[in-house]
Predict the 3D structure of the following.
Amino acid sequence: MNLKNFRPLLEILGISVAVYLVHKLFFYLNENNPKFQNFHFPIEYIYGFFFICSVVIVFILIKVKEKNIDNVGYTFLLITCIKMAVSYAVLYPILHSGNLNVKVEKIDFFIIFALFLTIETIVTIRILNNKQ
């Protein structure tokens, strides 16, 4: 097992922490704005959920690459579909809450989802381009 293969996991951690801090700063600067209060899930939970999903996805992709690199793309598509279904299940309470800030919270959730999906896609592209 080569530790160089697990470098993407550290990259995910670094990018996640950096974006989380910027996001948290945005909420801190707008703490008196009622649009950014009383969310169903705190952003820490959402970032934690997507971080864990991303780490699991990348770890699985690394393991699939070690066995057969031809299946990495298919595995990525399958795991991403599963992640989307689980993400919808997590988003479901937000969609049906009586909270006045549902629109802002949905946009917030989608931005975080898109961010981690982008990170996973870039890592998958790197894995596929590195066919050594």
User: Anything to note?
Assistant: The two ends are 14 Å apart (CA to CA). The mean pLDDT is 84.
